[in-house]
Design a protein that fits this description.
370 residues; alpha/beta; Rossmann fold; Glutathione S-transferase Yfyf (Class Pi), Chain A, domain 2; globular
């Protein structure tokens, strides 16, 4: 098997779903139904089988089905070349979510080793024209797919930076306190930078020469700390030492990997993504994600799980067909949503299709036959 896929998914009191139970095979998954019916909620649940706060970045309390607010649980069976893995993640009464893998409590970061996962959601359609924060999150999700320990590095960097920012706001002058934190930040920050560079290089290589209907993009990291020559930990620590007075005046750290931005250029037209049409911007996003899938499959031998919420809504018929062909060719278990089955007709038996409906208990999911 060259695919990581879910063979079973069960939701309990998660969002609009009081109880949902799906048995699956390795083919792509199509979920269709009316707007607001709970399709994206299912994709969000799947996204929580990877590290982080999921595709909506919601709090654990917000995910609980209302009005009960009893807490929620997601259970899944993941099948990959190494066998089957039982995964549970849950929250009780709004507490931070916990993870259980094969019957044992595990840190969230362990999910990154088992389930490599990527996603595109409608809120990302404006990725290239809005603030850098969203692009950094997108960049780090791409990077995490190659480096499961990337989450630990980013969390470590952010924690040390918060502590440094607290010293800055409190007007602490003792250089000893700063040096200790800046050394930690530099160690984590160097890992974050290197991981990002390597991930982008792999994705760029996967775009070049690929037969695809989606436009290739030239990707680059921008920001004062992203020079042509990678900076080491010593250089980062030195930069923070030299900018300490300026940072103190601002009350925060002004340079570092947390200020990195992701730049994209439509390669064939030599036009920045932010200046492209809405359709071209969406096509570039899809191209990057497909290249990420190809690169991961080349790197690990296993295609990741991909979540594509309403991805076909703004694609013409030829682009829809091309996207489905590429997904099937890559042998990835892509989860796709749409309002009706007509959007997925050309997939035919290449995908398993389910209709999401309302019932007296909230929602139900029925296989579409034929």
């Amino acid at each position: 098997m060259t695919t990581a896929s879910l063979s079973h998914l069960r939701l309990s009191h998660f969002r609009s779903h009081r109880l949902l139970d799906l048995t699956l095979d390795t083919r792509p998954v199509v979920l269709f139904g009316a707007n607001g019916i709970g399709k994206t909620n299912i994709l969000e649940a799947v996204s929580l089988l990877s590290p982080g706060r999921g595709l909506r970045r919601a709090s654990a309390d917000d995910m609980a089905r209302k009005p009960e607010a009893l807490g929620w649980k997601i259970s899944a069976r993941l099948t990959d070349p190494n066998g089957e893995h039982e995964i549970e993640t849950y929250s009780e009464s709004g507490a931070a979510r916990r993870v259980v893998i094969n019957g044992k409590i595990a840190p969230q970061t362990s999910l990154g080793v088992l389930a490599r996962m990527l996603w595109l959601v409608p809120s990302m359609d404006r990725l290239w024209i809005e603030g850098a924060e969203g692009r950094r999150r997108f960049l780090d999700r791409l990077t995490l797919s190659f480096f499961p320990d990337h989450a630990e590095a980013t969390l470590g960097y952010e924690k040390a930076m918060r502590d440094r920012n607290r010293l800055l706001k409190d007007d602490v002058r003792d250089a000893h306190w700063y040096r200790a934190l800046e050394t930690q930040m530099a160690e984590f920050g160097t890992t974050v930078q290197n991981n990002r560079r390597i991930a982008l290089a792999k994705i760029s290589a996967a775009q070049s020469g690929a037969q695809t209907a989606f436009p290739a993009a030239r990707l680059a990291l921008t920001g004062p700390e992203n020079t042509s020559d990678p900076q080491g930990a010593e250089a980062l620590a030195q930069a923070w030492s030299e900018t300490r007075s300026r940072d103190m005046a601002a009350g925060r750290t002004l340079v570092g990997p947390h200020r990195t931005d992701l730049d994209a250029v439509y390669a064939a037209k030599d036009v920045p993504a932010r200046e492209c049409s809405t359709g071209e911007q969406k096509a570039i996003l899809i191209s990057v994600v497909l290249a990420n899938v190809r690169a991961l499959k080349a790197d690990t031998g296993v295609a990741p799980i991909v979540l594509l919420d309403e991805v076909a809504a703004h694609l013409d018929a030829s682009r829809q067909a091309a996207l489905y062909d590429e997904i099937c060719g890559l042998q990835t278990q892509a989860w796709m949503t749409g309002t009706g089955p007509e959007m997925f007709t050309v997939l035919g038996a290449r995908a398993q299709q389910f209709e999401v409906q309302v019932n007296s208990e909230g929602t139900e999911v029925r296989p579409r036959l034929g």
